[in-house]
Automatic annotation (TrEMBL):
It is found in: Cytoplasm. It holds the Pfam family PTS_EIIA_1. GO terms for molecular function: kinase activity. This is PTS glucose transporter subunit IIA. The keyword Transport applies. GO terms for biological process: phosphoenolpyruvate-dependent sugar phosphotransferase system. It comes from the Bacteria. Residues 33-137 form the PTS EIIA type-1 domain. One of its GO terms (cellular component) is cytoplasm. Keywords: Kinase, Phosphotransferase system, Sugar transport, Transferase, Transport. It comes from Agathobaculum faecis.
Amino acid sequence: MFGKLKGLFGGSAGISIAAPMAGTVVPLEEVPDPTFAQGILGQGAAILPAEGRVTAPADGTIDVMFDTGHAVSMTTADGAEVLIHVGIDTVQLNGQHYKACCKAGDRVKKGDLLIEFDPEAVKAAGYETVTPVIICNTDRFAAVKTEKTGPVAAGDVLLTLQAK
């Protein structure tokens, strides 16, 4: 009961998930992949990258760093399970144009470098670079709110998660 009262009267601002890269925020529904666009993996937002760096969106632990370097999942210190998937169908590149900068089990701080990639080379290979940022345990939260539209800098608040 008191948790609900705090929410009503401004007690908790929620859990912040930062933009893992600079670029332009795109609504998840506009991502050209139904798994992401329909929210099958969870709610969130996407970023059309302006650079080839992916940073930790919060403090936490890396759960999976894909061998191909195109995606990473982590659990934040607040318990949010975040998937960052750089590009659409980019697993097919077999790691070409991607460099993993962390591994499963690593503890990371917000802003730590997770992945480097070459956005122009990915596009030249025929792949979209739009990057979904998904909260995979969405059902644990009362709401997942996108805080930014348009241009975003790495580290800006992208999503706010409200506890149930």
